[in-house]
Amino acid sequence: MTESLTAAYNQTKYKLGNHGKRDIRVLKEAFQDIEGQLESDRYGTGKIIEDFQAKMAALLGKEHAVFFPSGTMAQQIALRIWCDEQGFRKVAYHPLSHLEIHEEDGLKELHRIKTVLLADKSRVIGLEDVVNMEEGIACVLLELPQREIGGQLPSFETLWQISEYCRDKAIKLHLDGARLLEILPFYQRSAAEVCALFDSVYISLYKGIGGIAGAILAGDQAFIAKSKVWKRRHGGDLISLYPYIVSADYYYNLRSPKMGQYFEAAKELAALFNSCHGVSTLPLMPVSNMFHVHFHLAKEQAASVLAEVQQATGVGITSYLTEIDEHTCSCEISLGDLYAELPREVVIKAFRVLDEKMKQ
Amino acid sequence: MTESLTAAYNQTKYKLGNHGKRDIRVLKEAFQDIEGQLESDRYGTGKIIEDFQAKMAALLGKEHAVFFPSGTMAQQIALRIWCDEQGFRKVAYHPLSHLEIHEEDGLKELHRIKTVLLADKSRVIGLEDVVNMEEGIACVLLELPQREIGGQLPSFETLWQISEYCRDKAIKLHLDGARLLEILPFYQRSAAEVCALFDSVYISLYKGIGGIAGAILAGDQAFIAKSKVWKRRHGGDLISLYPYIVSADYYYNLRSPKMGQYFEAAKELAALFNSCHGVSTLPLMPVSNMFHVHFHLAKEQAASVLAEVQQATGVGITSYLTEIDEHTCSCEISLGDLYAELPREVVIKAFRVLDEKMKQ
């Protein structure tokens, strides 16, 4: 059934989420107007990488920024630098942090850093979680938005309070901002205003921005200098990173002005899901371009319903479902360029059909 | 003076070494005939990465191969896996190994692996170095050719003896084959025949092959499965590695048949250098596409001579010099596609001018 759900999704003419297929066209489009004579970066030096790093540092309001092949590498390194500086190897983050569940314990295996889990899996970290945490924490990592619970956010006031508390206690604060640009329309703040609350910041270049891969780590001069040494140790100081840099720059320019549009689309789409029988979104009201959809059916049943809806309407909702319990399953929706291409009447029809099928 | 040497080199019409500039054309050429619909790899899966890995495993005669963003990452991981399997964290390699001098001690800092240096800086590792090494070595790493001493090689018989000895003593043997394809014409062996002497093998995809970046690590099924876990821990399991994979495959197809041509060119060119007053190559007779050139002059003087020769003849010899002592400096030459574009009479004239200027 899951296979036919994937097949049904792949055959649809329209898709609710994302920017489009991750295929070679993503690279070809980014490079089509780039001069062939433009020289490669070379082990972290050269105009192509330095210009982009300076642009990202300015965006994030930090002294310096460095391009990394991945966020996994960038964030482990950030936490390691803060641990070394503080003199103890313990950090605190959410139980569903990317570092805790998607990185094969690199932080622990490579850096011997212990982790303390704040809050619980169902909610974001609040001020009280930070105030009540054990002693000897070198750095707190906050992920904004908290992806694995549908992309939830604390209020900006809570963020500010956590930042003040950490500064007061000399605890470093690191931002996992994989989707930082995506939350700015909700906070109604600039990237630099959010980043000012943090000692170091990571952003991803292939989520809302939709580049090929890559990440930026930003902070003060001394922090970034150390991060470059660790980047080499990790094997991330490649002779040429330009395929990622050129594409990141291209899609940043194209899509950073559209984050408000994606946010509005997410709110509209979540309302449509919530109007259907047996369907709800997490959060109910999105605070970024993403949310999770919960179908209150067993996974096999929901897969069957969604395959039918997608076949009948030509609208791609999801290619997969994750089981939550015997009676509930979910998928993630991230709004991108494709939603704007969807005719309004097609969307309305798709949700009418979904509502009907969910009732059966 | 060094700046004017670089400037003089950059202005020459011809170059002795390399394949050409590392600019965006390298990417554009590799992608020009690739269909836009071809799907990206995705976190190490998908046809684009799996096909190339299978091709490289077959080339190297190993069960499996995995694509890595860098050799730094691939080799640290190989040594870590063997250390874990053997139960002790100590490896042996040459004092000028890439891991010892170019990786900011990643092996020690990230993996807490101790290193024992074999042979001395002036020569390659021989059987007696391995036989006489201390106890408790999990793995010996051999770099073929030994780049930092001009690309020297042990005889194939010595390699075979070291391999037999290590197998007998249950010591793992890893090949740093950054330039493996480049030595096959000298050994008159297939890649698989050389790799059969080793438990694990790394090759680079941007040296003689001339791709954008990237590396292959090959070995048995269990070894490669573990390497993928470590690849994720290091932050090397990118969502998309295809910019490197597509270019590696393209330039592998283009240049792997030309390794014999590069080797012949290296021998011819080394003879020309050795015919000049105050110039010698290391090794005297190259065993791959590379060698070092020693100029028996102070670095400033040699830079001045070489800038003049390059300006006068339009032939690019080198853009830099490394000081060896007060009376000697050196550069590295790696033969690639460009040498074949050089008219014979231009080469001869360049070396006549070099010889004359070195006599003054």
From TrEMBL, chains A, B:
Coiled coil: none annotated. Residues 38-282 form the Aromatic amino acid beta-eliminating lyase/threonine aldolase domain. Pfam families: Beta_elim_lyase. One of its GO terms (molecular function) is transaminase activity. Its cofactor is pyridoxal 5'-phosphate. This is DegT/DnrJ/EryC1/StrS family aminotransferase. Keywords: Aminotransferase, Pyridoxal phosphate, Transferase. It comes from Paenibacillus sepulcri. Belongs to the threonine aldolase family. SUPFAM superfamilies: PLP-dependent transferases (SSF53383). InterPro entries: ArAA_b-elim_lyase/Thr_aldolase (IPR001597), PyrdxlP-dep_Trfase (IPR015424), PyrdxlP-dep_Trfase_major (IPR015421), PyrdxlP-dep_Trfase_small (IPR015422).
